[in-house]
Design goal:
Elements (H helix, E strand, L loop, with lengths): L1 E6 L3 H13 L5 E7 L3 E3 L21 E3 L9 E4 L2 E5 L4 E4 L2 E4 L2 E4 L4 E2 L7 H4 L4 E2 L4 H13 L3 E7 L9 H15 L6 E6 L9 H13 L3 E3 L4 E5 L4 E4 L4 E3 L2 E5 L2 E2 L2 H5 L9 E2 L13 E3 L4 E2 L6 H19 L12 E8 L2 E7 L8 E3 L7 E3 L4 H18 L29 H4 L2 H4 L7 E2 L4 H11 L3 E5 L5 E6 H7 L11 E4 L4 E4 L3 H4 L1 E2 L3 E2 L5 H11 L3 E5 L5 E6 H9 L1
Parallel strand pairs: 1-2, 1-9, 2-5, 9-21, 11-18, 12-13, 12-18, 13-14, 20-22, 27-28, 33-34
Antiparallel strand pairs: 3-4, 6-7, 7-8, 10-19, 15-16, 16-17, 23-24, 25-26, 28-29, 29-32, 30-31, 34-35
């Protein structure tokens, strides 16, 4: 029996476990999840608890048994992880040792108030935080008792979980105090080490405008040195001072010490991680996901969900003897509550910051991007149900609601300087001209060998005249082929897409006929539309006679935009 061990049963770990259970042969693989806690927390609910908004009032509303959403065929071990021995491929815990063939670190991160002078002593004395469940509950009384004075929300340092949450708290506080009729007597200030309300320029501009309209103050570039509970103030390293009557602190966030102790971390407990493959930089067969991964994207549940797709796909590739694919692009989207039953939606990745426009979503959307709306608020509220019933079980990866790649459909591309390239750049300037093709009638095994040899995931199929007639992809093999004991490439092929069966041994039997194509003189914008509309990863570039002259993938587009 081979073993996959997942450390941490938070969002990322639970999604990965559920996706792997459906993808692996459980007669050959055992999935083990290790977590010190017996509880799973819906952390977006922490934001509402201090103000008892939208029905969130009690601890029980955001906590469930950790085993509830874990796969039934997996082993759950409640234990403290003491060491990851990546030489022996073994996890040491206070409950025993667990060997692994692949390991996923989803250990998350936690607040470390002791990193700020005076903060630990100040906590509970007009100083609270909603970044922990106990802190969010304790803050209820403080918020309810406030009728006048200065509410200060302070971000101590980065990185933190959900970087947009502090300004979101300020906006909700404005709404909360307005509903109580005391808003005019309360000054609300966000104190941040960033240049503004948020780290992304477009989002910062919009959120700053909303904050100003609501009379919120933003103190930027404030590097917190200490908290003086006696004087009710915070100090910066530059000598600045901000006074408060009630302080909502966002303490520094660190990853678990065991990551550093195991030689996998960056010194603050975050696993050093390849940003595209999500594979650990320090050891083989280890992947990091969610808040524990040291990658340049938000530490948020949506990021963990999108990362899970890459992690699972790459583990399966390595099991099959293939190299991990650099498919994760840092995609994150999140609803930002602005009060009065309105919210904004942000959608961005490593290379593209939030853009205005619409976010299409079947049955629910479209949601507005970078703009307040009631439908966005609805999306935020119903996400509680989506989280427990679709995201954690890993179903969102199987339905076209939230694609792991950042889609451009509905976005106003003219607002982003780099994205303006999309309007003017031609396909021929970006496409890959070296394309491997196969002739119709090529054996399935020979086509598969060609994919492995050249490390490509698809092959255009051409006739004897070189005219394109179809495409066969790696996904076709994995999703549509039954295996046989002797010759796995010479068996009955089940074409699930068309719900039909056929006997075959050549690419003609497996290929998709009439694949989506584009000309080299067409715009990249047109290519983006075709990729999004048809939910495909690549376009075959042909001349007027449908001869193959290149291929254009999503990765090619991202490279163009990141230049």
């Amino acid at each position: 029996m081979k073993h996959i061990v997942i450390l941490g049963a938070g969002t990322g770990g639970t999604v990965v476990a559920n996706m792997l259970e459906r993808a692996l042969n459980l007669k050959e693989w055992q999935i083990t999840i290790i977590d010190r806690s017996s509880e799973h927390h819906y952390q977006p609910g922490y934001l509402f608890l201090p103000m008892r908004l939208y029905g969130y009032e009690r601890r029980s509303q955001v906590v469930r048994d950790i085993r509830e959403k874990l796969p039934s065929n997996a082993d759950f071990v409640q234990a403290d992880v003491r060491l990851i021995d990546h030489q022996k491929r073994e996890v040491k815990t206070d409950k025993g040792e667990y060997p692994y063939d692949f390991l996923v670190s989803s250990l998350g991160c936690h607040v470390v108030p002791e990193e700020v002078d005076g903060l630990t002593e100040a906590m509970g004395h007009d100083v609270h935080t909603f970044y922990t469940l106990d802190g969010a509950i304790a803050m209820q009384e403080a918020m309810a008792g406030m009728k006048s004075g200065r509410l200060v929300v302070n971000i101590a340092d980065s990185p933190i979980k959900c970087p947009v949450a502090p300004i979101e708290f300020c906006l909700l506080a404005d709404y909360y105090f307005s509903q109580r009729g005391v808003r005019e007597h309360i000054e609300i200030t966000l104190v941040t080490p960033y240049d503004g309300a948020f780290t992304k320029p477009n989002a910062n501009r919009v959120l700053s405008e909303i904050a100003a309209d609501k009379g919120l103050k933003v103190v930027s570039n404030f590097s917190l040195e200490s908290v003086d509970a006696g004087a009710h103030c915070i100090h910066s390293f530059e000598g600045d001072r901000v006074d408060y009557d009630l302080l909502c602190m966002v303490p520094p966030n660190f990853g678990p010490k065991v990551i550093d102790d195991s030689g996998l971390g960056d010194g603050t407990g975050y696993a050093l991680t390849d940003p595209r493959t999500l594979k650990c930089r320090k050891a083989d067969r280890i992947y990091a996901i969610g808040d524990n991964a040291a990658v340049a994207t938000s530490k948020a549940g949506s990021a963990a969900h999108f990362e899970a797709e890459t992690v699972v796909a790459n583990i399966l590739r390595e099991i099959d003897g293939k190299r991990p694919m650099p498919s994760y692009e840092g995609h994150v989207n999140c609803f930002v509550e602005s009060g009065y039953h309105k919210a904004l939606l942000l959608d961005f990745n490593y290379d593209i910051e939030p853009l205005p426009g619409d976010y299409p979503m079947p049955m629910l959307g479209p949601f507005s991007l970078l703009k307040e709306s009631y439908i966005n608020h609805f999306g935020k509220i119903v996400f509680d149900w989506v989280y427990w019933n679709m995201l954690l079980p890993g179903y969102l990866a199987e339905v076209p609601l939230l694609p792991s790649h950042m889609a451009f459909t509905g976005k106003d591309l003219s607002t982003h300087p780099r994205v303006q390239k999309v309007r003017t750049t031609r396909v021929g300037e970006v496409m890959q001209r070296e394309v491997f093709t196969v002739l119709q009638g090529t054996a399935l095994k020979d086509a598969a060998d060609l994919m492995v040899k050249h490390q490509v995931s698809s092959l255009p199929v051409v006739d004897v005249d070189g005219v394109l007639i179809g495409i066969v992809t790696e996904a076709d093999y994995l999703a549509a082929m039954n295996t046989a004991e002797e010759d796995p490439m010479g068996v009955i092929v089940h074409l699930k897409r068309g719900r039909k069966r056929c006997k075959g041994t050549t690419v003609d039997d497996l290929m998709t006929s009439k694949p989506i194509t584009i000309g080299e003189d067409e715009s990249v914008r047109r290519a983006v539309e075709l990729l999004d509309r048809n939910h495909i990863k690549r376009l075959i570039v042909t001349d007027d006679g449908r001869h193959v002259i290149g291929v254009l993938s999503r990765a090619d587009l991202m490279k163009m935009l990141s230049c």
